[in-house]
Amino acid sequence: MKACPENIVHAMNDYLDGDISSTDEATLKAHLKSCSDCQKLYHELSKTIAFVQSASHIQAPSDFVQKTMARLPKEKKKANVQRWFKQHPLLTAAALFCIMTSAMLFSNFNNEQQFSFTKQPNLVVEGETVIVPEGETVVGDLTIQNGDLRVEGELHGDVTIVNGQYMASSGVITGEIEEIDKAFEWLWYTIKSGIKEAASIFDNSNVQPE
Fold this sequence. Notes:
Strand content: 15-25%
Number of strands: 11
Order of helices and strands: HHHHHHEEEEEEEEEEEH
Radius of gyration: 44 Å
């Protein structure tokens, strides 16, 4: 089969599209009468267009998509989890941060078993008990870890006792008393303290010198 002239092929396309001039149409018909190869090509193009036009009216069943998706292999649960992580990077980062921070704080809670307290004037220590003696006044917050507190004088400030207890006495405490003896309570206290310190630093940075 020899190649059909390019102008005849263009004329075939224009004719099948219904967009051909009368002059080109006459030229095309005259050529088709004398060229069997072009006649064959023209009939093939006509059949192709007829098939496409008839297929355009075919509609898939309404549940075709659902049935096709149902037949696809199920994704593994691991793949779903990985996809969720990729779609929510900020939440993933926040969750990992919380997990790592909690693990670190719990580890510190278990490791910090030594007796310690906030150094303030007029305090007396007996063993692992911090005492505000009778007739003495302590001004400022007091934090005690792995020890007890007994107030016989006056304490003007808040008291936080970690892994210890406040021993009832005749003294006066003007602030709040908080006893922490569980890991979750200690974690919450640490978070609150961090927030207070951050807020204090932020407030101090906003103070303009006079």
